[in-house]
Design brief:
Chain B: Pfam families: Sortase. The complex is a heterodimer of chains A (58) and B (237). Chain A is mostly helical. Chain A has helices at residues 2-8, 13-39. Chain B is an alpha+beta fold and 237 residues long. Chain B has a single domain, classed as Sortase (Sortase, Chain: A). Classes of the chains: A mainly alpha (58), B alpha+beta (237).
């Protein structure tokens, strides 16, 4: 998978490394900005209030 | 690679290596999620809370300092009603208090007062329970150190015109998340029977999970008018 990406990037090793780094940063950005905020409420790690069970669906 | 069937072996090897890369990637994503939860959400929430706190302070400074009830208390608005100070959680610990305990409110790095299931009483009301919740981890983690609060410690709520000094009289270090009785107006679970002016702090426990709830109860000891310099009461010095 990563090997495949590496082989399909243009340029020499340095250019490829640079592009790889940029791609990795884009992925991290998308995760932090969109994926994790979406996933977090679905995971039971951060409910702090007492409730009568209704909050389970929020 | 010198076997008689190199292509079959190579295909198997490449399938396995793809699976391996997927697993490594999943591990990295999970690690990043931990970084996100425990660090990045704090950065965002603290930034947001600092701005919101500053805004409330400016409104207080700008607003009339009259004796009119609403003008004095200022603003039970969406901007926040005041600040909670808990010296046991750090000398300069303060957190903005806003209305509601929904995820979107608490994620701003503030403490929220309950509107559901039992609406909180405001500190200035004659009797009632001022019930609050805040995050233990992530999103500001304002109540992270709640376990450092002990019986007898002061908890101070600062409104526009008054310091409300509470004294902690009971700590419940673990209870069910469905234990809504802890936020009752007379929190009998804490051992009190009569109406009074109580404060209740709730958050999740143990740290990094939401399995149980941690509850701290306090009772109003006295109030103190805010002076022109906003000199904090002795409990905060």
């Amino acid at each position: 998978m990563y090997g495949w990406i590496w082989r399909h990037l243009p340029g020499n090793a340095w250019v490829r490394a640079l592009i790889s780094l940029v791609l990795a940063l884009i992925v991290v950005y998308i995760l932090f900005q969109y994926v994790f905020p979406w996933a977090e409420p679905l995971l039971p790690f951060n409910d702090v209030t007492v409730d009568n069970g209704m909050a389970a669906v929020r | 690679m010198t076997t008689s069937k190199p292509s079959g072996r190579r295909r198997a090897a490449s399938v396995i290596s793809v699976i391996g890369e997927v697993l490594i990637t999943a591990g990295l994503v999970l690690a990043l999620f931990v970084v996100y939860s425990l660090w990045w959400t704090n950065v965002l929430a603290d930034r947001h809370a600092a701005k919101a706190s500053e805004k409330v302070r400016q409104q207080w400074a700008a607003g009339p300092t009259g004796t009119g009830k609403q003008a004095a208390r200022g603003l039970d608005t969406k901007d926040g009603i005041g600040f909670l100070h808990v010296p046991a959680m750090g000398k300069n610990f303060q957190v903005l208090v806003k209305k509601g305990t929904s995820t979107s409110v608490l994620n701003e790095g503030v403490a929220g007062y309950y509107t559901d299931p039992t609406p909180a009483a405001m500190p200035w009301e004659k009797t009632g329970n001022f019930t609050l919740a805040a995050h233990r981890d992530g999103h500001g983690a304002k109540f992270h150190d709640i376990n450092k609060i002990h019986t007898g410690d002061p908890v101070v709520f600062e409104s526009k015109d008054t310091w409300y000094v509470y004294k902690v009289y009971k700590v419940l270090d673990q209870t069910s998340k469905y234990d809504v009785a802890v936020t009752d107006q007379i929190p009998q679970e804490s051992g009190v029977k009569k109406p009074g002016r109580y404060i209740t702090l709730t958050t999740c426990t143990p740290v990094y999970t939401s399995r149980y709830r941690y509850v701290v109860w306090g009772e109003l000891v006295r109030t103190q008018k805010v002076d022109a310099q906003r000199t904090p009461p002795p409990e905060l010095r």
